[in-house]
Design brief:
- The chain is about 30% helix and about 25% strand.
- The protein is an alpha+beta fold.
- It folds into three domains: about 1-85, DnaJ domain (Helix Hairpins), CATH 1.10.287; about 160-295, Chaperone, DNAj Protein, Chain A (Ribbon); about 300-400, HSP40/DNAj peptide-binding domain, CATH 2.60.260.
- Strand 12 (about 300) and strand 13 (about 305-315) form a beta hairpin.
- It is elongated and about 105 Å long.
- The N and C termini lie far apart (about 70 Å).
- The structure holds zinc ion (2 copies).
- One zinc ion binds near residues 206, 207, 211, 226 and 229.
- One zinc ion binds near residues 187, 190, 194, 240 and 243.
- Homodimer.
């Protein structure tokens, strides 16, 4: 995919859809075309094959939100600036001149230069356009270098991934933590130029600073990042010792981030704009934090619900009681009715894990605690009690035993 492709090819026409067609329409149009034009269905039909390739290429761009936007932007820029594909005999080499319309000289350099200087932080310039088209950083490896000309546009910072270990309650309630991160940033010694202090990079002689070169292949001319300067537009003679000429060094920084409430162990959360800072006013990348949650001695977790096991005495179970139990945030009172069996679970609404739409509940499960030893008095009392309890606590088991066992 080259810039020339973007400017000259009408992908919407190739798929037969309107410029504002939605994703579903584009997909449907492509599927229909792919079915009709597939080489397997049209053996030896060069025209069908060409159209099939055209449709595939168009779909490759229009089905990708980012690529489609770049394509639309590129076409808007060129058609809006008066450049008409084919009218002047092709895409002018960077910094050169094209002919647009009725013999009006069309200076591509002016167009980009003006945009670059006028827009300040927005940058603009050929580098910006090409950087975007080439995937914003991949082929634009050179965009990490400083350029002396206004060829370098803003670049989005890198996405950074890091880890954080949270206590159970921190994960449930959310917490603000400082994170130490190592990520590439502008070299402090050369301020990103890559050149030894006191020296300056010079304009790349191969591409004249544009960072791109044109290559002809058949009827098409492709623009690609300059190999000599790797797209940066400038060449460093005397590299900076700190960054070895790259203009980029790993830098440690500490940032404070808010981990949202309700994260789970192993979860990867995205904090937009908290990644590596952008260059030249570009937006920062995103930060991904993989959270590790240490266990809680008291609480368990089941989705958004917290679980808590609470032993009660036989007397409490039989007579009923009011329990006071801890939550992650304060305590709560819980009425246990008379005649409560072990294993019964009580739900305390809204005292669990704060979720996106609702806050989970606290599930309190009681068990009957039996003393390991009894004083003689207690023993006498329990024996007296046993004489009063003639209800069989296990009627099903008794019935099975009477029937001779089995299910
Ligand atoms: Zn440096
Ligand atoms: Zn170059």
């Amino acid at each position: 995919m080259s810039t020339r492709d973007f400017i000259e090819k009408d992908y919407y026409a190739a798929l037969g859809v309107a410029k504002d067609a939605d994703a579903a329409t584009i997909k449907k149009a492509y599927r229909a075309l792919a079915r009709d034009l597939h080489p397997d269905k049209n053996p030896g039909n060069a025209q069908a094959e060409a159209k099939f390739k055209e449709a595939s290429e168009a779909y490759g761009v229009l089905s990708d939100v980012q690529k489609r936007k770049e394509y639309d932007d590129a076409r808007r820029l060129f058609t809006g600036g008066g450049f008409r594909p084919g009218a002047g005999g092709g895409f002018p080499s960077a910094g050169g001149y094209g002919q647009a319309g009725a013999g009006q000289p069309f200076d591509l350099g002016d167009l980009f230069g003006a945009a670059g200087q006028g827009a300040g932080a927005r940058g603009g310039g050929l580098g910006d356009l090409f950087g975007g088209l080439f995937g914003g950083g991949g082929a634009g490896a050179g965009s990490t270098r400083s350029r002396q000309q206004a060829a370098s546009g803003p670049a989005r910072g890198q996405d950074v991934e890091t880890e954080a270990t949270l206590a159970f309650d921190e994960a449930v309630l959310g917490v603000t933590v400082p994170l130490r991160m190592q990520s590439p940033g502008s070299c402090p010694t050369c301020h990103g130029s890559g050149a030894k202090p006191g020296t300056a990079p010079h304009t790349c002689p191969v591409c004249n600073g544009a960072g791109v070169t044109s290559r002809s292949q058949g009827a098409f001319a492709f623009s690609e990042p300059c190999r000599e300067c790797r797209g940066s537009g400038s060449v460093v003679d005397d590299p900076c010792a700190t960054c070895k000429g790259s203009g980029i060094t790993d830098q440690v920084r500490t940032i404070t981030v808010r981990i949202p409430a309700g994260v789970k162990d192993g979860q990867r959360i995205r904090l937009a704009g908290k990644g590596a800072p952008g260059r030249r006013g570009g937006p920062a990348g995103d930060l991904f934090v993989v959270v590790h949650v240490t266990g809680s001695e008291l609480f368990g977790r089941s989705g958004d619900d917290l679980t808590l096991d609470v032993p009660i005495s036989f007397a409490e179970a039989a007579l009923g009681t009011t329990l006071t139990v801890p939550t992650l945030d304060g305590t709560v009172s819980l009425k246990v009715p008379p005649g409560t069996s072990g294993g019964r679970t009580f739900r305390v609404r809204g005292r669990g894990v704060p979720g996106k739409s609702r806050t989970g509940d606290l599930l309190v499960t009681v068990s009957i605690a039996v003393p390991g030893s009894l004083t003689p008095e207690a023993r006498a009392a329990v024996e007296a009690l046993a004489g009063q309890l003639d209800d069989d606590p296990r009627p099903d088991v008794t019935a099975a035993v009477r029937a001779g066992g089995g299910a």
